[in-house]
Amino acid sequence: MKRGQYTDEQIIGFLKQAEAGMPVKDLCRKEGFSDVRFYKWRAEFGGMDTSRLKTGGKCLPMCPVRSVTYVSGRSAVNRRA
After folding, report:
1. Which of 2, 40, 67, 69 is the one with CA 20 to 30 A from 23?
2. Per-residue three-class SS string for 13-80
3. Tens-of-pLDDT digits for all 81 residues of the chain?
4. Maximum CA pair distance of the chain?
5. pTM (two decimals)
């Protein structure tokens, strides 16, 4: 898959600018990407800090294990996130 023109650190910087109160439309226009791309980045990188990038976004051993319940048909299956 082709890598985009923005680094992960830049993307997180954009997300932090939006969290700080900059309107998303203005941020996208200023930096040159679409608002759809911004929301995809927010879904992927949301809440992540640049320190978590070094771990590949993986949960560190001290993080609690999150379990998600998937319902398939009538039975529920627990899987680790």
Report:
1. 2
2. HHHHHHHCCCCHHHHHHHHCCCHHHHHHHHHHHCCCCHHHHCCCCCCCCCCCCCEEEEEECCEEEEEE
3. 456 789 988 999 999 999 999 999 999 999 999 999 999 999 988 777 777 666 555 555 555 445 444 455 555 555 554
4. 49
5. 0.59
